[in-house]
Each structure stands twice: as C-alpha cells, then as structure tokens.
Amino acid sequence: MTDTDLDEIPVARPVIGAREKQLVLDVLDSRALSLGPLLGRFERALAARIGVEHVSAVSSGTAGLHLALRAAGIAAGDEVVTTPLSFVASANSILYEGATPVFCDIDPRTLNIDPAAAAAAVGERTAGLLPVHIFGYPAAMAELERTAAARGLWIVEDACEALGAVHGDGPAVGARGNPAVFGFYPNKQLTTGEGGAVVSPDAAAKQRIDSERNQGRAPDMDWLDHDRLGFNYRLSDIACALGVAQLERLDAMLADRARIAALYDAGLGDVDGLELPCPDADGDRRSWFVYVVQVPPGVDRDATIRALREHGIQAKPYLPAIHLMSFYRERFGHRAGEFPVCEDISARSLALPFYPELSEGEVERVVEAVRGVVGGAA
Description:
Mean pLDDT: 96
Radius of gyration: 21 Å
CATH architecture of the largest domain: 3-Layer(aba) Sandwich
Oligomer: single chain
C-alpha cells in the first residue's frame, strides 16, 4: 500500500456525538430556534466553566471582538496596540469602529505579543490593548495590565483560541476581569458550528452587549423599538445546543488534545532544526488548539506542505503576518522588516493535523512523514 492509497488526514475535525445530535433535535422539536431557552443555558454553563459571572453568546468570535471593543469604549481615531501574528479578525475588529491597529512584535517563545514591545508602541492616541492568546497559550497579561494601568488604557482579550487555558498567577484565561472573547469555529476546543462568546466585567457591560447583538433592543423594549445602534450578532438555539453538549465533554476533549500534543512532542522532538510549540512555564497552562511547528531556517515551508499532501496529510500555513497582507500594506503602508520575529515565525510555521479523535496510528503516520520531508530537506 502506498501513501496515496491511504485516507487523507485532515488538519482539523470536530467531535460530534449522540448528545449533540439529541440536543439539536430537541431544539428543532421545540420550534424555539433563536432567543430560546438554550441561549441562557449555554451562557450560564460557559460562565461556570470559565469562572465568571457574565457571558453573552454571539454569532462568531469576530462579532464578539467587535462588541467587546465597543463596550470598552473604542472610538474613531483611536489607536489600539495588538499583535501582527493572529487571525485577521483581531485587527479587522478594530477597523470596524474607525480606529487603527498598531502592531508590535511578538515573544519568540510564546508567540504572543511582547509586553515590552507593546509598552513601547503606546502613543498619544492609544486607547487600549488587544492581546491575543495565540494557539491557546496564555499571554503575559500581568505585564500588559501594568502598562494599561500606568497609561490609562483599557484591555480586550482575544481568547478565541484559548478556552481552558490558565494563567500562572491563578485565573483561567478570560477570568481576569477584562472583556474577553472566545470563538467556537469547528476547529476550536469547543464548537457551536459558528459562534463565540463575550465575557463582560460587569452586569452593565453584559446588558449593553446583549442589546447590541440583537439590533440594539433593550430587554424591556418591544421589538419594534430600539434605543441604540445594534447588529444581528445573535447565536441560534441550535448552535447553543451544540455548545451545551460540547461543554459537557470539554474536559475529555482537552485531555485528548493534550495527549496528542505529547505524542507529537515525543515523535518530533529530535528533528534537527524543527521548532515545536513551547512547553508550559511559570505556571501557565496551554489549552491545545492547534499543533504548529516552524520548519528549520532555509527549508521551504510551502514545499513542505505540498510534500506532506503527497503523503495524504493535510497541513496549513499558520498564521500569515497580518501587516503583510495586501489590504494592510495598501491601507497603512506596512512593509517587510517591521516586525522581524513575527515575520520569521510566520514564514516558517505550519499546522499539523490536530483534533481529539486523531488516532495514535495517524499521529505516527504524520510524524513519519514530517521526519522524512523535513529531515531530508534540512
């Protein structure tokens, strides 16, 4: 049997079982497909899991970032310091309100925003910080919070990739008292198909977000009247049913992800020049979202991805540098060389197949292919 005879191993695949199907069917039978009882049930369960009081489910992590930034007080003309190594939504959400993302370089170990670089990027027009807990590893929030307190800035945390992660100084990611946003796309630790959630620091912020996700309608107002600008950022009860079921099995799925990451670590740790995800340190605990490696310097990352596909293994560039995307180059004049750590990491990074139901044999197949492709190219 050749590699081409084997089933292709995808980059990601959600875990969907009988419980998810039953809860979705229950919603369909109830005919309460949106703004029904599953919305509140999912929000309460998620809040309990994170260790917070106020959670608002929304249609996507991007929608959550937009609403969280509005609630934090973003205004047209503001600048927001953020990372260039992220999914583009983190920067785009700043632009939605007429503000400008100001990028700074990343920490080469964690790949999160570098706190010292963030502090240096703060200027007269800076209103806030938008750190991203990239690939599920906690950002250095204590240092960023000191900068924010000293300069009078707000913080919104992009935790879309980090449900289940924990900071070394105690709280779970999303439970530090800052507005924080989670995402539930099918490749995430928990999925609702499409969806997200905003953690609000207080009841007033939650009330605002709940209103703005529903076209600006206040809780006690008739649907024909609205007292603020709002959006259609609701999450359906069908999606919330998936979320309730996924939360019930979240600990098991996180454990499976950690187990698969450990298998990759053991299988790839001695490949010369291949850089693996950083281990937990200083009490920080990663929530495994993706397994991203950097090929050795001088090895063609894109050729590596093509070679892995010939072995029936999907791999993906992860992630492009936002400031070098054509839109950001043309809009803001960004150029190569501005953020060298980010640009180096971005050019060499690829995501390997990673999901809870990945078998040990499939991991071994991926490891063997990576060792052959990267080892032979290095």
